[in-house]
């Protein structure tokens, strides 16, 4: 019933994934009762319309030969994915609870378990595996060894015939990266031309695609806005399976779920997917599963703030940074320029058991002095400081597009004779993993005059600001207007940061 299955299955049909076999347990029961109270569509016809091969096993409780035959037919179909609908009775064998919702999410209970054992003529003790059952399943140990030996022999033959391709394949499935891969990431100086971090992201993706053969991905119908196309490759389609641009269509949730599958498959592929940051609302379930399942998906999320401008509050993320920072095992990165974007990709690629979300700007940003890939790897670091003895008069925190504002505000305050440290907190999760000594060297406990600036919810910033600090941000929805006007109207300005700084010094 859930939409994500239709999104994913629609793409599976479009791509002609002939190796995909899905079992549908057609037992007509959900938690609230018979599925007829809310679900009366013809599932067979829906999947046929999606381009699937559909097989119906009408007696799934006992007709094992029909199930075996269905699997054999599914394997023969190589042009389409197959849905095997198996009609069963939920709780089969239970004399009082079979075919009812009460067996869906609850244990049978001791009395009903005993009744079920008698009904099925199952005389063995609890947790006993009879010898004939054990023998039946144990035959797979020998068969498995034979299959593995043949696979290894086939690989050896392939390696002899195609040594370069075999070496690449072995590198992928081992999870090892090519030596020096990170050197491909672009580097910038303050003299380099400014650009939106979404464009800088595309430069990173295309640089990495040349050295990481497992990198592939795409966008939910926004590739030209997310800037996620790999320019040296075409589109992955049914007839072009070696290409690396995945066209997900407007299917955010399905896109995330598919990338989870790619990341967890064990083939060494590194999936990325993209949409506008605010549209993570449509795929949050998949992103949470990434974090929960330790799937190293790279989420490329552009248009990361009110800086996107006229599309207005429906498209402007406010609470999203805070929400992903609250998600366990998710790296939330918001780079400010080219070097930080490159650093974000280095972190994202290396973290194969943690997903990464990159929040990227639509608007052009300058290349800042003091930013670095190495700094991003620490999550938070000093990009400018005129103090001595780790005792600045003021610390200004910034992320992403507002790091520039933090730097300009610091320059104003420095001219008034104060010492100011600017800290980029590009990834809170990585910063929290640093040693106590390092964190003290960046945010000394003895300095209570602190200000943060970020074009998003201020929720969570008190962790770094303390009781005295001030947060410059947005705790309400945005509006439709050019970015410059919005920043001024909502107080995300150098002048406001300076004013807040004077309140705490």
UniProtKB/TrEMBL annotation:
Cofactor: Co(2+); thiamine diphosphate; Mg(2+)
Residues covered by the Transketolase-like pyrimidine-binding domain: 195-367
Name listed for the protein in its UniProt record: transketolase
CDD domains: TPP_PYR_DXS_TK_like
GO MF assignments: metal ion binding; transketolase activity
InterPro entries named among the record's database cross-references: THDP-binding, Transketo_C/PFOR_II, Transketolase-like_C_2, Transketolase-like_Pyr-bd, Transketolase_BS, Transketolase_fam, Transketolase_N
Keywords: Magnesium, Metal-binding, Thiamine pyrophosphate, Transferase
Its EC number(s): 2.2.1.1
Catalytic activity, reaction form: D-sedoheptulose 7-phosphate + D-glyceraldehyde 3-phosphate = aldehydo-D-ribose 5-phosphate + D-xylulose 5-phosphate
Subunit annotation: Homodimer.
Pfam families with a match to the protein in the record: Transket_pyr, Transketolase_C_1, Transketolase_N
GO process terms (BP): pentose-phosphate shunt
GO (cellular component) term, any one: cytosol
PROSITE patterns reported for this sequence: TRANSKETOLASE_2
SMART domains named in the record: Transket_pyr
Family that this chain belongs to: Belongs to the transketolase family.
């Amino acid at each position: 019933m859930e939409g994500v299955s239709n999104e994913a299955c629609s793409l599976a049909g479009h791509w002609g994934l002939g190796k995909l076999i899905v079992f549908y347990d057609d037992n007509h029961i959900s938690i609230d009762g018979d599925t007829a109270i809310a679900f009366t569509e013809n599932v067979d016809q829906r999947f046929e319309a999606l381009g699937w091969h559909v097989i119906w096993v009408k007696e799934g409780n006992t007709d094992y030969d029909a199930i075996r035959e269905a699997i054999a037919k599914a394997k023969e179909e190589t042009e389409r994915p197959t849905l095997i609908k198996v009609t069963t009775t939920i709780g089969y064998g239970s004399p009082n609870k079979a075919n009812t919702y009460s067996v869906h999410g609850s244990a049978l209970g001791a009395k009903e378990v005993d009744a079920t054992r008698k009904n099925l003529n199952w005389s063995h003790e609890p947790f006993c595996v009879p010898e004939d059952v054990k023998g039946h399943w144990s035959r797979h140990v020998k068969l498995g060894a034979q299959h593995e030996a043949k696979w290894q022999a086939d690989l050896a033959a392939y390696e002899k015939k195609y040594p370069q391709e075999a070496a690449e394949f072995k590198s992928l499935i081992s999870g090892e990266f090519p030596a020096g891969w990170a050197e491909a990431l672009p580097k910038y100086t303050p003299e380099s031309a400014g650009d939106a971090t979404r464009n800088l992201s595309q430069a990173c993706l295309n640089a990495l695609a040349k050295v990481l053969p497992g990198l592939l991905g795409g966008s939910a119908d926004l590739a030209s806005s997310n800037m996620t196309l790999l320019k040296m490759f075409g589109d992955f389609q049914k007839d072009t399976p070696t290409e690396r641009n995945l066209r997900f269509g407007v299917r955010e949730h399905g896109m995330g779920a598919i990338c989870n599958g790619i990341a967890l498959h064990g083939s060494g592929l590194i999936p990325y997917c993209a949409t506008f940051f605010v549209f993570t609302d449509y795929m949050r379930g998949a992103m949470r599963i990434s974090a929960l399942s330790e799937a190293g998906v790279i989420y490329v999320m552009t248009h990361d703030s009110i800086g996107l401008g006229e599309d207005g509050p429906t498209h402007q993320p406010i609470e999203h940074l805070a929400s992903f920072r609250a998600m366990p095992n998710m790296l939330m990165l918001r780079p400010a320029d080219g070097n930080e974007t490159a650093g974000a990709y280095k972190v994202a690629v290396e973290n194969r058991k943690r997903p990464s979300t990159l929040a990227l700007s639509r608007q052009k940003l300058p290349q800042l002095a003091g930013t670095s890939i190495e700094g991003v790897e620490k999550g938070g670091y000093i990009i400018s400081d005129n103090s001595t003895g780790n005792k600045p008069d003021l610390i200004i925190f910034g992320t992403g597009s507002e790091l520039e504002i933090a730097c300009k505000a610091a320059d104003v305050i420095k001219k008034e004779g104060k010492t100011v440290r600017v800290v980029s907190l590009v990834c809170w999760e990585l910063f929290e993993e640093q040693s106590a000594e390092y964190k003290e060297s960046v945010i000394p406990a003895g300095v209570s005059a602190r200000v943060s600036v970020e074009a998003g919810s201020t929720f969570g910033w008190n962790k770094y600001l303390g009781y005295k600090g001030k947060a410059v941000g947005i705790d309400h929805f945005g509006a439709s207007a050019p970015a410059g006007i919005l920043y001024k109207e909502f107080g995300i300005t150098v002048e406001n940061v300076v004013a807040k700084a004077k309140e705490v010094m």
